[in-house]
Amino acid sequence: MIRQVADDLLGAEPAVLTGALVGYARVSTRDQRLDRQTRALEAAGCIRIFADKLSGKNTDREELTKALDYLRPGDTLVVPSLDRLARSLADLITIVADLRRRGVGFRSLKEALDTTTPGGRLVFHVFAPSLSSSAS
């Protein structure tokens, strides 16, 4: 399983990424505002933005599910920062590997990670071995 995740993260990106940039934003409580995140996603060129007002610990995030369902091969999921998407490193790697298997790119604005580039794929490949130590 770990080898498959690593292979998925290092695999070549589709020759032409012609799809849309799709944003996902999240705040932890209903009192917090999404404005700053949505402005950053709009500035990055996202044509559609999904947003949750839920704790990251909540595994049932309706808007994240909708965003993942909306994405098509060639699209790229864009998040303001990694902690807005995933609850843990293992969760992040699982989500990104699933996106790659589907032919979908991933970009985090704050950390400047972009799996549509060889450097971005390498960064995620370096993360992947940590799964084996957390799974034991």
TrEMBL record:
Natural source organism: Nonomuraea monospora
Keyword DNA-binding: yes
Annotated active site: 28
Keyword annotations: DNA integration, DNA recombination, DNA-binding
InterPro entries: Recombinase_CS, Resolv_N, Resolvase-like_N_sf, SSR_resolvase
Domain Resolvase/invertase-type recombinase catalytic: 20-136
Domain of life: Bacteria
Record-given protein name: Resolvase/invertase-type recombinase catalytic domain-containing protein
SMART domains (UniProt xref): Resolvase (SM00857)
Pfam families: Resolvase
The keyword DNA-binding is annotated on this UniProt entry: yes
